[in-house]
């Protein structure tokens, strides 16, 4: 199966500052040079994860921290790694943690897996004293009114666990930068006044940093009205390259994709691409019906194929005006685990599972096999007709991320892990997968509801609840992982 490439590369700016104790350098010749060599190893480990690294050198007393702090603050960082190359006094760290409002992670990677006790020296101990001041730094962070920083503990070499944590934090940094710099379009209105869909754009900007761009359907209509025929033709070819067009099976509202629906979907996708480019958007939440028989209705009800292509290219598209779920989809996409728009469908009590999916948009890069397009004579519960996307999510582990709002107006992540089963789904032109969740489907769904989620969520592949919880922590957002024991 072909994979759609990202529209924009993921990136983040990660700072590294090493810490030590200035008294040691005069006492142990060569120790300072060894510490710089250790720091260079960490820098290399971080740089290989597609992030820009800014190294601020080694700080060994409070005076140096105060002098370096303006540079750190001006660097526009998404993550600061504090490399605990040896013991350091917490005055070196206190000014940093007090002044910075970005994720800070302490990295304690000692060169040796264990000291050579029979031949140990103080020099050897200091060279491996990476963890020594971690508790001191954590205590000072709390006294400064901050959360205890996250810690990576391990060895400098041949430690896949520590290396995986470094990679995870680089990915979290990419999520953090994406959210705080995103321009997310909001167009139309809530579908049928679904009360759980209403989101205050100012609150969203406050929580995530994303700027909300208020858009009109006419902004897309301008690009629909007089499209470049060559672009429409190329878009048809792109669609047919990525999608199958099967015959109908059991649902009488489905048809094999018609030439007319293919043309409309391609034309709408070209208009959508032009609109996104014009507005310089990174995501979009929308719902708009338009008058019966109008060009606006034809356009706005035929964005499903185009927005699924965009979603796979790293541009979250969220139907039903659900901008908070657009954020959840962006989080999953930036973690490179997908992020389809989903909700719960009928329960399969025979298989102890439940259908999860929606009528679009979908992250087609996480499809099991080639996704399909069917022509629909009607969109259930909504006006319009046309092409719709259908596929199974990849078999195996899955994660769901709901982004809901509490009674005090705060955002909350609701997270759960399960399994996508390799079983048939209804051939209705909608994307679904049959999900199994522990301990059993009834208990799980009751627990999910008890966490008070919205009815939509983002659906991704793999088990990533722990990483998503860390994302919530760095954003200062409450999160709950639904228990499955």
Q: Could you please describe the fold and organization of this structure?
A:
The protein has 485 residues and is of the alpha/beta class. It folds into two domains: 13-179, Rossmann fold, CATH 3.40.50.10940; 185-481, L-fucose Isomerase, Chain A, domain 3, CATH 3.20.14. 38% of the residues lie in helices and 24% in strands. The protein is built from 16 helices and 19 strands. The chain has helices at residues 22-27, 31-47, 62-74, 91-99, 122-127, 134-143, 160-181, 201-208, 217-225, 229-242, 259-279, 295-300, 304-312, 323-334, 441-450, 465-475; strands at 13-19, 52-59, 79-84, 104-110, 150-155, 183-188, 211-215, 254-256, 283-287, 317-318, 338-348, 353-358, 372-376, 386-390, 396-405, 411-421, 431-436, 457-461, 478-481. The strands form four sheets. The chain has a six-stranded antiparallel β-barrel with strand order 11-12-17-16-15-18. The longest helix is centred in the middle third of the chain and has 22 residues, at 160-181. It is elongated. One of its GO terms (biological process) is L-arabinose catabolic process to D-xylulose 5-phosphate. It comes from Tessaracoccus lapidicaptus. One of its GO terms (molecular function) is L-arabinose isomerase activity. Keywords: Arabinose catabolism, Carbohydrate metabolism, Isomerase, Manganese, Metal-binding. Residues 379-478 form the L-fucose isomerase C-terminal domain.
